[in-house]
Amino acid sequence: QLVESGGSSVQPGGSLRLACAVSGFAVDEFAIGWFRQAPGKELMGIICSTGRNLSTSRFTISPDNAANTVYLQLNNLKPEDTGVYSCALGPPGSSCHKSQFVHWGQGTQVTVSS
User: Shortest CA distance to 97 belongs to which of 34, 37, 28?
Assistant: First the structure.
């Protein structure tokens, strides 16, 4: 089971930290991915990792093995980042494409607006 939390409404330039609490699987042994469903657009992979921290220019995924939770830090948010953010679990080493992931959470809403 995967349960997301932390979604909110923020102004452009703001930051958020989303959490994905995982039960039944060890987060350091499987791929965890964060995906975004923007209004009217396809589900898109944001960042994915197997057991380690990984960053892009604005986003960081970080597994916490003790809490069995994977975090997504979102910085310098833009209106186009608005959407439902979901975490998903798949086989270790999975690429960041939705077809690779088997178990999904329900999602948490992020809205970026002034």
Answer: 34
